[in-house]
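Annex B, item 7. Sequence and structure tokens for protein A, then protein B.
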Amino acid sequence: MRQRLTARLGRRTARSLALASAAAVVLAACSTGGKADSGSDLSADDGKNGGPAAIVVAPGADSAKIPVSRKVTVRAQGGSLTSVEVTSPGPGRLSGTWSKGKSVWTSTTPLAPGATYTVTAIGKASGGSALNKTASFSTEAAKNTFVGEYYPDKGTKVGVAMPVSITFNKPVHDKAAVERRLKVTSSPAVEGAWSWMKDRDGKDRIDFRPERYWKPGTDVTLRMDLAGVDAGGGVYGTQQRVVNFTIGDAVTSTVDTKKKTMTVAKNGKTLRTLKVSTGKTGFETWNGTMVVLSKVPTIRMNSDTVGIFGPEAYDLGAVKWDVQLTPSGTYAHAAPWNAGKFGVVNGSHGCIGMSTSDAKWFYDQVHLGDPVTVVNSVDTVATNNGYGDWNVDWAAWKKGSALD
């Protein structure tokens, strides 16, 4: 969240000084010392030994592009500071802390790579005259950066089981540093937690979910303040994102592999119970809760894509009304070739098959983020196989945070 950083400070008593509105601009590291534009050294006593009252900013306008590891320091030389604002159009504002004497402000937010910052500082000389300073500087472009691919998209309406999910394109060695710069808020407010995992392709991924499903109508906001964050080993973030989305109706589906039925409810009211055929022995449909990932009206289903060869190989051609539940290939779809099996026997290779008319009806009811829970099957779906997040109990889920 971008937040204006303004501090009101008390008057600082000092020896009589010559007043001047001119200010030096310096380059500083993590220490409080630095070099002025003129090249003169500054010390803690500057302004007490006859020097002009001024606001000194480090790093300075004529500095070379600086590394993001540096701090921004604003010093009232011969006076006190009233307010300090350091901002960049992309990364936003920096936070900072004040010295005990309230004459020095030092940034605490990491600088973003390849950004230009403007410093605006206001203060007061010990004699009462106003001091002000505006300066700017640019940071080095990062040689190694990372980004996170996030879901759901901005402005979407999703189901009650949709987590916030971010998968990173580079390894995240300092997970705590990254997690601290991620925030999810909602209206109405709800308790939630982040949890880290490896995605199916081995990439680092972090998901956020409430203890229980979102309430319909909830407005959710994800804030990614990753610009300048070191993920470990000098790999820096570049993203500043605010992503808003809304939770739609509670459309929940329960598949009973013993009864060979799927019961669909909306906001607690049962709509229909459909006859289905799930995975046969050796190809059982995943047990547990899966979340709708996508919908497509027609898709070609070929066993080669899911690693099934030999006697069980198949090529079904164009399959209608496909609701994807896992990246590993679990769908709920029309299966007219199994017409005699619905409600009678489980005969699929892991998908949830039903009549074409029932599949069309189901397709029209569900949306991205709706939960589909399978009971009385085997092998609970993995957390990273789509959004299997809801199969982890709440205490274990919270332990997946890097901040616990």
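Protein B:
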Amino acid sequence: MNYISSLREVIGNRPIISVGATILVINQKQEVLMQFRSDTLDWGLPGGSMELEKRWKRELKEETGLLAK
């Protein structure tokens, strides 16, 4: 179970203030990577809630399938 899910079990549907990550990926043509969000049905930058001990490179892989150098 992840950290956010375990918090939800304790506090229910009350708001949570937590850390998130947004990753800006720009290629050699200066194009910006956007992804279609299934939760809001619109386009946005890759990112999401950060779990304990998660790093930005892992978040990039999780959200886009891309590996950072």
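Comment on protein B: Residues 3-64 form one domain.
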